[in-house]
Amino acid sequence: MTFRALWIISHDKGRNATTRFSRRFSTVEHRAKRMAGSSYVAVPEDSVVLQLLLIELGLSDPDKPYVALRDDCLNRPRPPFLELRVDASGKELLWPVLALLQGPLILACLPLVDVPPEPRPPLATLLSVSQGLTFLAGLQTFLLGSGSKPDGEGLASRLGMLPSVLLQVCPLGTPLDVPLPGPPATPTAPASGGIQKQPAWKTGLHRGRATVSVALLETVRSMQYGNRSRQDLWDVYGRVTCKCEVEGVLPNVTVTLSLPPNGSPLQDILVHPCVTSLDSSVLTASSVENCDSSAFSGPYKFPFSPPIEPFRLCCYTSQVPVPPILGLYQLKEEENQLHVTATLKLHESVKNSFDYCEAHLPFFNRNLMGGVDVKVSSGQLDVSKEKNRLVWTLGQKFPKSRECTLEGRISFTGQTSGPSDPLCANLTAYIKLYFKVPDMTLSGCCVDQHSVQVYSSAKPRIVTTRELQSKEYFIWNSTGSAPVSSAPMMM
């Protein structure tokens, strides 16, 4: 795996963005030009890359409420995997650009992809993607030290050291501390001195009580329209995070993910480079292709030698048949009032126990709310302090019927204008759901505590958790228009 270019950018919430460091590798660029042929796209100047990254990450022009290239629903930012439109027509693209955001820092790189640009291969099949993210994560640790926020003087000092550091760890654009592709090395006997060499990517050794923590978090997104002419969209993204406090230079740990008998196979799986071996059929299952019954459906075993710090073991997508909460939202304009009705129904497969569950109903391009005569069948309804949004708190449980309703009228009075949004004019409006469900996943994926194997001298304490949360979960007014999204909803 090699890099065509590397950038480190600092910014203040999108303002005062500056390229603090950049490096291009001419030998790698020559290879990229030779492989791409007529489809070759040159890397533009740093100032151009800076603006393109800010646009793709949604950080450009923070003072403007709407910027087409940033806010249009067809151009959704998808960090850490981006594509940069070099020309105005959008035909010249740099892909895949990898970007990590940490506070006011953006770390980005453009790896060399040794495959034809068309048809574009799934990201899960590109080893350079996972290795590039690992390199950026290591670079982030080097720049920030042990803290999560950059120290001004410390950051400047490390940036000054970076050219010489890159000569050692990334000569000619090829990182030396990223595992090379191929089967895992056969274990060998320790050296005569009995000392096991510590790998360069492991910054220290754990001393003390052995503990292995495995957390599985699934995030669901949804766009529901309540209209037979419009197809509802939803997707599920999962990630497994581990923290392994185990003694030894290279301890061996195996985490197993299991699915229920009727569960859909996991897809688009990306793994941390510390994973030592994996069945190739696990990595090739992609949501872009039609999933058939012959796809590998687990159990998914991930043997690895963990770093000392917390890390993301793997991430995946899953095709579930229905979203967890189905909704219907209707607005009707009657004189100077809005007639509002909404229904939320919890699917029978979802555990009826929430850490929290709220529905927000914002009203754009109108005056502030005056009279609010709205009733709910369950939960509590409040008007926001700014008088431009209804907050429906459903609490920790749906009723036994698993269905809640809201109905009433809202009048808008006074001369003070509420929030504006160019996408939500007239009857174009939505409900946005926020919820978290502990001890469940929508795909049924789980990590059995007894399936975590640790090969160490001390018996570790095993802790496993799982939970489901929402992100960008919208229910659009069925009596109005709604934004059209032709792009796949990927995390």
From TrEMBL:
GO biological process terms on file: endosomal transport; protein transport
Primary localization class, coarse: cytoplasm
Domain of life: Eukaryota
Alphabetized PANTHER family for the sequence: AP-5 COMPLEX SUBUNIT MU-1
Family: Belongs to the adaptor complexes medium subunit family.
Stretches assigned to the MHD domain: 209-476
SUPFAM superfamilies per record: Second domain of Mu2 adaptin subunit (ap50) of ap2 adaptor (SSF49447)
Keyword Cytoplasm appears in the UniProt entry: yes
Mode of membrane association: Peripheral membrane protein
The keyword Transmembrane helix appears for this protein: no
GO cellular component terms, A-Z: AP-type membrane coat adaptor complex; cytosol; late endosome membrane; lysosomal membrane
The name this protein goes by in its record: AP-5 complex subunit mu-1
Organism, scientific name: Gouania willdenowi (Blunt-snouted clingfish)
InterPro entries with a match to the protein in the record: AP2_Mu_C_sf, AP5M1, MHD
Subunit note: Probably part of the adaptor protein complex 5 (AP-5) a tetramer composed of AP5B1, AP5M1, AP5S1 and AP5Z1.
Subcellular location: Cytoplasm, Cytosol; Late endosome membrane; Lysosome membrane
Entry keywords, A to Z: Cytoplasm, Endosome, Lysosome, Membrane, Protein transport, Transport
UniProt xrefs under Pfam families: Adap_comp_sub (PF00928)
